[in-house]
């Protein structure tokens, strides 16, 4: 998929754990993990807004378009 999710990068920059971020944005650990690993098929604007607020960033810091991106193998 050419959309790369960089939630983990922003979490590392803010020194924030998955549990802490999940609490701040009111998401379950499972749902946040799915989003973080790029396995989510969609994201609500309200969730994107909450992530940006919690991580003090812009949507472009979390999502990146790379046309020829190679999918990560889990």
TrEMBL record:
Superkingdom, taxonomy of origin: Bacteria
UniProt GO molecular function: DNA binding
Pfam families referenced in this protein's UniProt entry, alphabetically: HTH_26 (PF13443)
Domain HTH cro/C1-type: 13-62
Listed Gene3D superfamilies: lambda repressor-like DNA-binding domains (1.10.260.40)
Classification via InterPro entries: Cro/C1-type_HTH, Lambda_DNA-bd_dom_sf
The protein, known as: Transcriptional regulator, XRE family
UniProt source species: Fibrella aestuarina BUZ 2
